[in-house]
């Protein structure tokens, strides 16, 4: 079967898939595969917000759960269903409780009862009620519950193993040409209720004991070790797991699969048998991280009696990147399976970092849990912080502290500079709102705020405070006040500094003006699209500064409140420069007056960049791109100062530059593309000569390898002749001899350029590698390469592939992004979506995903005719799209107009700079600090 399939051409295979998919479109279930993506276009809920939350009348203490899955039809049992029984021990401290409310979803309950535990007395009940929107089951009682007595709620039910990667769901992998089905779980945030009736909110902590009745050819795994396994019937075993610690329902996990375990020192990696040889690194780094983090927090993992071992499982289909289920962490395969000969250096780092993130959750999330999802940052902010600083305890040579600043701090600043942002602590009620709060504000900004607090307190006090916090709240839930109260033990002003960053949206721009006696600092909220806003929000600012190379080491801030402050300095006009926010510890942008920008520019162009710290160089790069974007600094000025990048040799500033240039490239006027291309090739020229088109050396710094990947990608994308020839030659060599693979750290650029400059033959070759590889990390690299297709025919084939089952649901969104990041594809993608919207909706689960696809195209388009075609399409197909998808695309069309206005408004500045530079004027302009100063006087006038 498999051999026959590979003899078909790719186009034939995908055409067949398209026919089948189209035929199924009318009957496909409409719920999206990943509802988290559609938070912004959620239909208005019918229920009141508070109705989505359970009352606190009844609290669970213990669950006994038995699950019997059917991964194939058995008698009258349908495939992908499961029988379930659940007994929940509950109690109440209230009088006259006449009903019990809890959650359930996607199941049919055949029987339920309430029994008083002390005497087994049956409590008379009435007809249950169920609200499908809130997913709350109400159990009315004829007799009131007694306060402080224990009751047992018993349920018998049938559940469904869906394929949407939520609840107890089905997944599969291929083995010797056969599809092997398996079951896995993903319960965060609100999907435990799909597997068993439960009080599905984090505050309702309880212990759980799980039994799984499974076919004997399957192995089963859960949060705790197996206590016993008995034969219940022919071909089936009943496996009983140890009782869990007291924990939230979303942390329960179990897997039913013919997996194998690579186990050592109390840790095991679970994987399909063919992937067991990819688990050594994750096992090794996992063991090291579990000990290092336990030591750092001074609370060893096995201090919890039930946690005698840690399992980490690689799941073929997984909606999130990974999940912190206590004792059974689950991952996408690409985030845990690694081979040095088939995975990039960055993929290895991501694996270590994701493992560190999930292990950190064993304390920050599992042992101590956010009380409700409105303070998700108490879980995710800590985990994101340790994703970098925990990994750095084990992998010490990766400059993770530098990467944190660009990826996390600068990354979240983009979202947090929009009016649509929200505070870290933010009310949520509905399932979609809860999903939406798991965003960069909770993760990145949460971590950034913790880093600010660490530098405010000092690392030793910060560590001591967090150790106390964990011990104080162990096995309980936490609110921000619990954290603030502990921090205040070590500094009475800690919460005064930290809390405003958690409850206020956005962040400030600090403008620095110089005078003879020092510097004046003024703060105002930075809103990138609204420079003239009247928002008066202020923050307690952590202020540090440097006037020479030695000054950047001081990251202990002085806290300033109020909109304006003065820094007194004798002979201030004589300083080499004045740069605010050492190593970008503080969460704010900085703009300077003309004189100070001139000094910074001069220093950047001098030997050793004037001693400016590498993180502050990255800060300057990121700030300039975004201050120009926000109409605070003229683009011409920003681009002139950023010419210093031609001599930059460090990864962090280049990563900041790549982020800024990516955004700018989408706003360059179509008629200025050639000039912009020449500009890109110019500023990357020395960097290319520095990194060279070569595999990394044995002793090469890890971040230098990352820098090479970025430089080669940009050079080749913009037509660097040497880069392109080298990449194509390596692709041709690989195609002729696939047994000798391309070095993993060169694959992204080699695959992309080979496909861009190649034909259907090269595309078919690489697609076949995708279909036959055993490595999830390699599949990602191949999808990136295939996204570089440059003919209409191959773009169509690629989009057909994304819509087909050959690209797993978890990878479809990224695969689409790889395609549309290639500007040539945009008109072809737009027409494809218009012609095949039904197939796309079916493949992705919802017309909301069609809307998302159109909006991602519109965000990159520079063609009014293509915009008009999309507008005409949605008006003609409004009923098919549905109101939510239609409204979403209408908003995308409005954003297109906003982007177009931005391009026209800034075109003069940008094109003038590019034109002068290409005619040899850039050097003169850079040397002319008076001109820079004159331009920057406009900055102060605008601000």
From TrEMBL:
Aminopeptidase N-like N-terminal domain segment(s): 60-251
Source organism: Anopheles culicifacies
Signal peptide per UniProt: 1-30
UniProt name for this protein: Aminopeptidase
InterPro entries registered for this protein in UniProt: Aminopeptidase_N-like_N, Aminopeptidase_N-like_N_sf, ERAP1-like_C_dom, M1_APN-typ, Peptidase_M1, Peptidase_M1_aminopeptidases, Peptidase_M1_dom, Peptidase_M4/M1_CTD_sf
Subcellular location: Cell membrane
Keywords: Aminopeptidase, Cell membrane, Disulfide bond, Glycoprotein, GPI-anchor, Hydrolase, Lipoprotein, Membrane, Metal-binding, Metalloprotease, Protease, Signal, Transmembrane, Transmembrane helix, Zinc
Site (Transition state stabilizer): 443
UniProt-listed Gene3D superfamilies: 1.25.50.20, 2.60.40.1910, Neutral Protease Domain 2, tricorn interacting facor f3 domain
EC class name: hydrolase
């Amino acid at each position: 079967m498999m051999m026959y399939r590979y003899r078909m051409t790719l186009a034939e295979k995908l055409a067949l898939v398209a026919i089948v998919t189209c035929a199924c479109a009318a009957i496909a279930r409409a719920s999206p595969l990943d509802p988290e993506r559609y938070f912004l276009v959620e239909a208005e809920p019918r229920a009141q917000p508070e109705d989505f939350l359970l009352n606190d009348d009844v609290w669970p203490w213990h669950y006994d759960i038995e699950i019997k899955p059917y991964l194939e039809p058995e008698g009258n049992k349908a495939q992908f269903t499961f029988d379930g029984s659940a007994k929940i021990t509950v109690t109440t401290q209230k009088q006259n409780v006449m009903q019990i409310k809890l959650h359930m979803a996607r199941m049919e309950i055949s029987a339920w009862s309430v029994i008083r535990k002390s005497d087994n007395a049956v409590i008379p009940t009435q007809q249950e009620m169920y609200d499908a929107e809130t997913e709350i089951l109400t159990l009315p009682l004829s007799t009131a519950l007694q306060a402080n007595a224990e009751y047992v709620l018993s349920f018998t039910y049938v559940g469904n193993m869906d394929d949407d990667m939520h609840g107890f769901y089905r997944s599969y992998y291929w083995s010797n040409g056969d599809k092997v089905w398996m079951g896995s779980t993903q319960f965060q945030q609100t999907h435990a209720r799909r597997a068993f009736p439960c009080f599905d909110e984090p505050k309702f902590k309880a212990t759980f004991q799980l039994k799984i009745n499974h076919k004997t050819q399957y192995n089963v795994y859960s949060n705790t070790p197996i206590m016993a396994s008995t034969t219940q019937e022919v071909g089936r075993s009943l496996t009983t797991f140890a009782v869990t610690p007291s924990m939230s329902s979303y942390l329960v996990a179990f897997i039913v699969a013919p997996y194998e375990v690579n186990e050592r020192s109390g840790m095991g990696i679970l994987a399909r048998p063919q992937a067991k040889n990819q688990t050594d690194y994750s096992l090794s780094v996992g063991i090291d991280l579990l000990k290092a983090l336990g030591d750092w927090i001074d609370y060893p993992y096995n201090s919890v009696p039930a946690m005698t071992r840690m399992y980490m499982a690689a799941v073929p289909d997984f909606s999130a990147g990974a999940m912190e289920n206590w004792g059974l962490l689950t991952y996408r395969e690409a985030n845990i399976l690694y081979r040095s000969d088939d995975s990039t250096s960055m993929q290895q780092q991501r694996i270590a970092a994701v493992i560190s993130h999930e292990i950190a959750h064993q304390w920050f999330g599992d042992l101590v849990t956010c009380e409700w999802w409105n303070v998700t940052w108490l879980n995710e902010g800590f985990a994101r912080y340790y994703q970098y600083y925990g990994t750095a305890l084990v992998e010490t040579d990766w400059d993770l502290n530098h990467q944190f600043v660009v990826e996390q701090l600068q990354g979240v600043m983009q979202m947090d500079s929009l009016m649509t942002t929200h505070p870290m602590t933010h009310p949520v009620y509905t399932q979609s709102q809860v999903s939406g709060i798991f965003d960069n504000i909770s993760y990145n900004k949460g971590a950034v705020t913790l880093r600010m607090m660490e530098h405010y307190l000092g690392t030793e006090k910060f560590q001591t405070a967090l150790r106390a916090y964990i011990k104080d709240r162990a096995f309980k839930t936490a609110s921000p006040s619990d954290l603030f109260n502990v921090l205040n033990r070590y500094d009475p002003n800690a919460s005064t500094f930290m809390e405003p960053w958690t409850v206020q949206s956005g962040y400030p721009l600090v403008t620095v003006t110089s005078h003879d006696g020092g510097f004046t600092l003024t703060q105002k909220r930075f809103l990138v699209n609204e420079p003239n806003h009247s928002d008066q929000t202020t923050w307690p600012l952590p202020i540090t500064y440097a006037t020479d190379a030695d000054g950047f080491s001081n990251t202990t801030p002085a806290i300033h409140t109020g909109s304006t402050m003065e820094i007194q300095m004798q002979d201030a006009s004589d300083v080499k420069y004045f740069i605010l926010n050492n190593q970008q510890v503080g969460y704010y942008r900085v703009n300077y007056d003309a004189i100070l920008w001139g000094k910074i520019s001069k220093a950047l162009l001098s030997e050793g960049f004037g001693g400016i710290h590498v993180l502050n160089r990255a800060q300057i790069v990121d700030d300039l791109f975004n201050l120009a974007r926000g109409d605070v600094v003229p683009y011409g000025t920003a681009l002139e100062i950023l010419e210093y990048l031609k001599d930059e040799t460090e990864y962090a500033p280049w990563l900041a530059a790549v982020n800024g240039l990516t955004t700018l490239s989408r706003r360059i006027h179509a008629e200025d593309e050639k000039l912009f291309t020449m500009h890109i090739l110019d500023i990357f020229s020395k960097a290319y000569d520095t990194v060279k088109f070569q595999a990394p050396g044995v002793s090469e710094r890890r971040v230098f390898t990352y820098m090479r990947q970025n430089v080669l990608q940009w050079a080749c994308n913009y037509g660097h002749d040497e880069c392109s020839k080298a990449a194509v030659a390596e692709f041709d060599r690989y195609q002729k001899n696939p047994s000798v693979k391309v070095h993993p750290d060169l694959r992204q650029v080699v695959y992309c350029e080979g496909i861009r400059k190649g034909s259907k033959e090269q595309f078919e070759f690489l697609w076949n590698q995708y279909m036959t590889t055993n490595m999830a990390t390699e599949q990602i690299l191949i999808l990136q390469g295939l996204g570089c297709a440059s003919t209409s025919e191959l773009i169509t084939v690629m989009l057909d592939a994304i819509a087909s089952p050959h690209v797993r649901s978890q990878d479809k969104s990224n695969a689409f992004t790889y395609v549309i990041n290639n500007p040539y594809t945009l008109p072809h993608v737009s027409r494809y979506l218009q012609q095949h919207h039904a197939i796309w909706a079916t493949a992705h689960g919802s017309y909301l995903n069609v809307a998302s696809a159109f909006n991602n195209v519109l965000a990159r388009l520079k063609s009014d005719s293509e915009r008009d075609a999309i507008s005409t399409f949605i008006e003609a197909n409004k009923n098919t799209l549905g109101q939510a998808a239609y409204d979403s695309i209408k908003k995308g069309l409005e954003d297109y107009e906003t982007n177009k206005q931005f391009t026209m408004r800034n075109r003069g500045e940008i094109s003038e700079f590019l034109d002068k530079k290409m005619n040899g004027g850039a050097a003169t302009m850079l040397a002319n600090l008076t001109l820079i100063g004159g331009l920057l006087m406009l900055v102060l006038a605008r601000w």
